[in-house]
UniProtKB/TrEMBL annotation:
<feature type="disulfide bond">
    <location>
        <begin position="201"/>
        <end position="211"/>
    </location>
</feature>
<keyword id="KW-0325">Glycoprotein</keyword>
<feature type="domain" description="SRCR">
    <location>
        <begin position="132"/>
        <end position="233"/>
    </location>
</feature>
<protein>
    <recommendedName>
        <fullName>SRCR domain-containing protein</fullName>
    </recommendedName>
</protein>
<dbReference type="InterPro" id="IPR001190">
    <property type="entry name" value="SRCR"/>
</dbReference>
<keyword id="KW-0472">Membrane</keyword>
<dbReference type="GO" id="GO:0016020">
    <property type="term" value="C:membrane"/>
</dbReference>
<feature type="signal peptide">
    <location>
        <begin position="1"/>
        <end position="19"/>
    </location>
</feature>
<keyword id="KW-0732">Signal</keyword>
<keyword id="KW-1133">Transmembrane helix</keyword>
<dbReference type="Pfam" id="PF00530">
    <property type="entry name" value="SRCR"/>
</dbReference>
<keyword id="KW-0677">Repeat</keyword>
<feature type="disulfide bond">
    <location>
        <begin position="95"/>
        <end position="105"/>
    </location>
</feature>
<keyword id="KW-0812">Transmembrane</keyword>
<feature type="domain" description="SRCR">
    <location>
        <begin position="24"/>
        <end position="129"/>
    </location>
</feature>
<keyword id="KW-1015">Disulfide bond</keyword>
<dbReference type="InterPro" id="IPR036772">
    <property type="entry name" value="SRCR-like_dom_sf"/>
</dbReference>
Length: 244
């Protein structure tokens, strides 16, 4: 369907479109882009998403479109990450939550507005689930490493685990790096199966998934069920939450 532009009183521009090529991004996290104000690109122009019905289902789909497993929180407020500069795109998305992109969600006609407010909907924001977490530590910045893959949390094997690997995990979680590297054979409930083994990071990767390892499969051979552990340094990370 061809786009039709109508200039309305108050500076509103209505765009009738199938929105087949909607890109989305989060503005707020400069490292992993895993949380922040939701912006969409429509007809080549990025703008803040204003929505009166923004909820966790919409956030789940947004995060999934960006490559995350889902969302931890969804907010509609000017105070979280601001209005942003430039154009604002208004649409009351109604996602079920299982869509792979917001293009697949039920939606209204897209409109351009000057500000996000109680009439147009406040700026939408989301915090996405990081597929890594620390378990069993004395604080949020330490513990044994688990990764989320194929809808399941599993351990990372501690064989050949070193400082470079630990640094990648800690930066992934939002810390400066690691201050301690260790392994542990403690049974923490559930099961002792692993997703990753023989991890070999150079230390510059942005996630363990970018590091060399022997591939994805459960029950990797892992001597004595030795699990990888870290203690991170620096200020507390903002994205530690994983799906239970």
């Amino acid at each position: 369907m061809e786009a039709m532009i109508i200039f309305l009183v108050g500076g509103v521009v209505t765009l009738k479109t199938t929105a087949a090529n909607l890109d989305v991004r989060l503005v707020g996290d400069p490292i992993r882009f895993s949380y922040g104000r939701v912006e969409v690109q429509l007809k080549g122009t990025w703008g803040t998403l204003c929505s009166r019905q923004w909820d966790i289902n919409d956030a789940h789909v947004t995060c999934r479109q960006l490559g995350f497993d889902g969302a931890v929180t969804a907010r509609s407020s000017s105070y979280s990450f601001g209005q942003g500069t430039g154009i604002k795109w208004k649409n009351d998305l109604q996602c079920i939550g299982n869509e792979s992109s917001i293009t697949e969600c039920r939606q209204d006609t897209w409109s351009s507005v000057s500000f996000c407010n109680f009439r147009t909907g406040y700026p939408s924001s989301a915090m996405c689930t990081l597929p890594v977490r620390l378990i069993g530590g004395l604080s949020a910045k330490e513990g044994l490493v688990q990764v989320y893959y194929n809808s399941t949390w599993r351990w990372v094997c501690g064989e050949h685990w070193n400082k470079q690997d630990a640094d990648v995990v800690c930066r992934w979680l939002g810390y400066l790096g690691s201050s301690r590297v260790y392994t542990n054979t403690t049974h923490l409930g559930g099961n002792d199966t692993t997703w990753m083994s023989n991890v070999q990071c150079t230390g510059s990767e942005d996630s363990l998934f970018s590091c060399v390892h022997v591939g994805w499969r459960r029950n990797h051979s892992c001597a004595n069920n030795r699990k990888a552990g870290v203690m991170c340094s620096g200020s507390e990370g903002k994205n530690r939450t994983g799906r239970s």
